[in-house]
Specification:
With 209 residues, this protein is α+β, with helices and mostly antiparallel strands. It has two domains: 79 residues, lambda repressor-like DNA-binding domains (434 Repressor (Amino-terminal Domain), Orthogonal Bundle); 120 residues, Umud Fragment, subunit A (Ribbon), CATH 2.10.109. It is built from six helices and nine strands; from the N terminus they run ααααααβββββββββ. The protein has a nine-stranded mixed sheet, with no helix packed on it. The radius of gyration is 19 Å and the shape is elongated.
């Protein structure tokens, strides 16, 4: 995962600001940051000059922060080396925007980079008690890997029109059954065209534990 979003935030720039500097649309910046589209070589060179970092650091291939690169005279035994990435925490999801649009992100949570390989990830705070039977209480944070298809019995983040839900899924022909794990709630049956699977839940984190 590259560090473009992290560097942009550190410098107080919006995706629109970045797009104007690179001569591209905001949507392109969003795709660069999530890794959906590789950053072109010309843009990499401009970004390295802009943020005063190496291409390896920008692209997430270098785990030493730029601050400590500048202090090369210091003994390496005193140079902390980090190998973490900031995973976005999605708050209220705004209608019509991609799940990882700036407007949806409230903060970044550090996570070992080895935990978030081969894909796009985000955290989401759980609202409601629909999934307490899976030990996912209200207020917990779930780590989600973005993918458009999940298997029967897996827990997924699903968008239905402007509503985002957390449910166990089951495929039945051309329909998807969204199953809560709290007996107070009934399963929902939706047609495939009316629902978007955003990603699969991989981890549950309880704040304060």
């Amino acid at each position: 995962m590259n560090r473009l979003r992290e560097l942009r935030k550190q410098h107080g720039l919006t995706q629109d600001d970045m797009g104007q500097r690179l001569g591209v649309q905001k949507a392109a910046i969003c795709k660069y940051e999530t890794g959906r589209v590789p950053i072109p070589n010309e843009a990499i060179m401009e970004l390295c000059d802009m943020f005063d970092v190496t291409a390896d650091y920008l692209l997430g291939r270098d785990t030493v922060t730029p601050l400590f690169k500048e202090r090369s005279s210091i003994s390496s035994m005193f140079m902390p080396v980090t190998d973490t990435v900031g995973v976005p925490l999605v708050g209220r999801v705004h209608a019509g925007l991609p799940i990882l649009a700036d407007e949806n992100i409230t903060e970044y949570i550090p996570l070992p980079s080895s935990d978030v390989i081969a894909g796009e990830y985000f955290y989401m705070e759980v609202e409601g008690d629909c999934m307490t039977g899976e030990f996912i209480p209200e207020g917990a944070l779930v780590l989600v890997r973005m993918q458009s298809r999940v298997e029967n019995g897996q827990i997924a983040v699903v968008r239905i029109e402007d509503e985002v839900l957390l449910r166990k899924v089951k495929w039945m022909q051309n329909h998807l059954v969204l199953i809560p794990s709290n007996p107070k709630y009934e399963p929902m049956i939706v047609s495939g065209g009316d629902v978007e699977i955003i990603g699969r839940v991989l981890e549950v984190r309880i704040r304060g534990l």
